[in-house]
Design a protein that fits this description.
With about 120 residues, the chain is mainly beta. The chain has no helices and 6 strands. Strands 1-4 form a two-stranded antiparallel sheet. A two-stranded antiparallel ribbon has the order 2-3.
Length: about 120
């Protein structure tokens, strides 16, 4: 994940921060799909495409999400899942996808995220 910041122009903003009718940036073609690259030698792989053995539900029971075709899909009503192991400083690599075409509107399309140290959230909508 790469974050960049662009200085705001001087004066008042034309659009409120969360305005749903603000202009959208152009869609960028990421180019052709590339074959997967193996993880670094010191990586702790939390999902191997087959099993949720490194994950649990919030109450400590086995994670109730679904593994399908090499990916994890949230099961309605399953609640969050957490790693069994705690982490502090990390370098995090996450791959995610949303349905095409999108289903629903606004946060009804999905409201998820990655919590770091059970506190800080990287939100994925």
């Amino acid at each position: 994940m790469t974050l960049a910041s662009t200085p705001a122009p001087s004066g008042a903003q034309q659009w409120p921060v969360h305005a749903m009718d603000r202009p959208r940036p152009p869609v960028v073609d990421p180019g052709p799909e590339r074959p997967p690259v193996p993880p670094p030698s010191d990586a702790i792989v939390l999902f191997d495409g087959k099993s949720l053995s490194q994950w649990q539900s919030q109450d400590g029971s086995p994670a109730k999400w679904v593994v399908r075709d090499g990916y994890v899909e949230v099961a309605p009503g399953a609640g969050p899942m957490l790693t069994k192991r705690g982490f502090g400083d990390v370098q995090l690599h996450i791959e995610w996808a949303t349905p095409t075409p999108p289903r629903g509107e606004g946060q009804e399309r999905g409201n998820s995220g990655v919590f770091l140290m059970s506190f800080y959230e990287i939100q994925v909508l």
